[in-house]
Design a protein that fits this description.
The protein is an alpha+beta fold. It has four helices and seven strands.
Amino acid sequence: MRILLILLIGSINFAFAQVPKNSELFLALQKHDSIFFERCFNQCDFTYMEKMIHKDLAFYHDRGGIQDKKKFLENTKKNLCSDSNKKPIRKVRKESLEVFPLYDDGVLYGVVQNGTHDFYIREPNKVDKQTGSAKFTHVYLLENKEWILKEVLSFDDQ
């Protein structure tokens, strides 16, 4: 049911318009995406990750199934952060980013963010080698003036 709601929110462009790519909200979420994934995915900063992921995270992956926060952190440590000599790296396709605001009685409480990201393997003294790509949909909630990741769809893995 939750996944259906996320897909519905993310696909109804006429009801919840994407914010302009030069808007303050878009630029803030673009910057957040850059910092969040650099620190969490690329640098494996688990202290930051713990803080920036909602306690009730729901992560839906087309290959890895459904994960809660505990399982997500375990899988990240095991699959993304266990070998610094072959480190998976995530880079977003900046032109693919879309941001859709979520309001409650006119008050911004969250966003839906869509896009495509590419994955690479980083090895010492080598150029990053692309290994795949996927589409994503994120639901971020605005809590205490910080964007906290609450829901994730990762799909169309190539």
